[in-house]
Every structure is written in C-alpha cells, then in structure tokens.
Amino acid sequence: MLSRVIGQDRAVGVLAQALAHGRVAHTYLFHGPAGSGPRAAALAFAQALLCERRGRPGGPEADACGTCLACTKAARLIHPDLHVYLPFPKVSKAADKDERPGDYAERLAALAAEPYAPVDYRQRGALGDDGPSKKQVEHRRRPTNDFLRRDMTFVPVEGRHVVGVLTDADAMREGAANSLLKLLEEPGPDVVLVLTAERVENVLPTILSRCQRVRFDPLPPEAIEAALVARAGVPAGQAGVVARMADGSYTRALEVWGSASVQEQRALALDFVRKAYTGRADVVAPVVQQAASGGREAIKGWLDLVALWVRDLVLARAAGADARLVNVDQAEAVHRFVAALPAADLDAMAAVVAQATDAIEANGNATLVLTTLAFALRDAMHGRSTGLLVTPLDAA
Predict the structure, then answer these.
(1) DSSP state of 29
(2) 205 and 232 co-located in one domain
(3) What spatial distance separates the first Cα and last Cα of the chain, rounded to whole Å?
(4) What is residue 122's predicted lDDT score, i.e. its pLDDT?
(5) Strands (E), 69-202
(6) Where among 201, 234, 259 does a domain terminate?
(7) Residue 30 forms beta bridges with which residues?
(8) I need a labelling partner for 104 at 20 to 30 A (CA). Which of 57, 80, 139, 214 fits?
C-alpha cells in the first residue's frame, strides 16, 4: 500500500492523484537514491492498480485496500498480472543461455516481506551475505526479451492491468535498453510499466522521453528512525544512530542494523582517525591491514564510516552542542576532538577521504591507498594539508 511508503509525501501524492482521477500513464520512472523508496513505491503502486475494491463503493479511491484477494496476492508478489524484474548476473557462460539464478524466486519473496530489504544482486551476491555479487549485475537483451517483452504482451488474467516493475533501469546494457524501447513504443492498452533508477543520466534518453518521472528524495533521519522502531523493532536508543548512518536510505539502515560487524567497523574507523593523527607508520599499519582485508565494496563502506566521523567533526565545529551528529552515542569524543584540534582543516579531511574512496573504486591498491590517506589526514589534522590525497610531482 502507498501508505507504507516511508517519508515521500510529495511522490506518493502524485501517484495517489493519478489513481484517484484515473489518469495512469503507461510508463513511469521512479528515480532517486537507492533505498529512499522508488522500489517500495513501485510495488505499492502496482498493488493499488490491481486492487479489486479501489474506486468502487466502499473501497479506497487512491490506494490499495490491502485486504481483497488481489491485494494479498500482489503484496506477496504472486499475482498473475504482476511481474517484477531484477537485474542479475549471468549464470551460464553459454552464449544461448541467460536464465534467472536459482534463488531469484527466494529474493522476490524476501522483497515481498520487506520492499526496502537489501535483497537484489547488486547488494547481495547471495542471500545472507554482506557483500554484492562479484559478477556484473545488469539487465541484458535476452532476459529482457524472454521475460519482460513476453509478459507485457499478455492480457490481464485477473486484474484491470498487466503491471511490470523493472528495478535498476540504470543498469541496462544497450541491447536490453533497445528491446525495452520497442515495448514502450507500442504498449498494450492495459499495460503499466514502472521503472526504477538511481542515476537518471544512465537511462537511455529515448526511454526517458516516454516515461512519466516521479522523483524520490533522500529520507530524513527522523523518518528512518521512526520506521526502524515501528517496522524493524530496533530499540529507540539505537535507531537514532543507525538512521544517521544510513545517508537517507532505509535500505542502508536495514543493512547497518543487520550487520553484526557495523559497530566493530565504526570503532575501527574512529581508531584509524585517531592513529592517523600520530603520523607513525607502525601505529597506523595494523589498522590499515585490518581495514584493507575486505573486498572493494567492503572497503568503500568502511571509508563511508570514516567520512561520517569527519562529517560529525565539521558539524560539531559549526554548531557546537546543537550539532545533529550521526554518531550521537560518541558525541563527547567528537566535541573533545574539535576542542583539542582548533587548527585542523576539516574540509581537507573530508576531501582526502572522498579521494581515497574514488581510488578504491578505481581498483587502487587498498593498503597503499589507506596508508596514504592516513598521512593525508595527519597533515589535515595538523593544519598543513594541500587538500589532495597525493600531491602532484610538479606542485610548487
């Protein structure tokens, strides 16, 4: 139901108006930061489109009723007129095979249970793992033809529409995008297709031109905190910390809460900043070795935690006791750091952490990048930073 979408009143209002006035477009693009609601809203919108009672006497006008048979089937993602398409890695090396992985249905079931859950292949290589797939995850031409284009030619079996939800439309190969475009050029009269994307610039312009776009904004920490308490059963005292670590994404908040190592990694991030201040290679090396031991995505996630510490320092210096910190349970340590290092160049600290993340993304050697970052942070904390992770050889 649209009422279950977290903190997106403007976007939900647009969809509710379309439902209430019967002005539903053939194709939508719900776009915004991952975990902020595009996927959850797409599934809720699909349920409302298929609801048997919507717009009828005694039923809702602008949302699903949530109780009719069609609604219960749509909520479980087993309605015959609802089709969900996740990008997935190629299972077989054979050129003529591109079937769905064996756990595809299991992931859809998990998605039905919690539409914000981190269950797609870009986030989880295997259900229960913390890391993403090590293979390329994308929409390809053959599955797009075999599943999407085939399904969208059907007439409704039980509902008023045939509804397709294609997530991560910004992860489409050219062949898949062209196949989708052919479908959009001549949509069936009862077909409604909802695409979701994080990066609109990566969606083919000819596809964008055929979509009604609905924007989703990063979620405020207060909305994430309330949802964590109400939906995930997170204790109120811990929900605030998790919400501020989530960077506007309820999916990220669920990842943080579900990861047993997050508190450990957060402590390691603080330890790294403290030991970087010493400028001693023998002190920094053990922390670097521990942080560099994971894969690329794990290291990037850890650097995000370092960036959150730096962000808190910036806020504490600017707003003092009124600062809305991410690491609220470490407020005393943050304010003590700011007071003890008045000459620290916090903007430079933030800049070099961002550059280190870019270097890891570009497959830089993790140990070398993190060691270099430690010394760049040392210089920034002592007020003598260039704001660069690596100073060019020709610098004056």
Answers:
(1) E
(2) no
(3) 61
(4) 83
(5) 82-85, 162-166, 191-197
(6) 259
(7) 196, 214
(8) 214
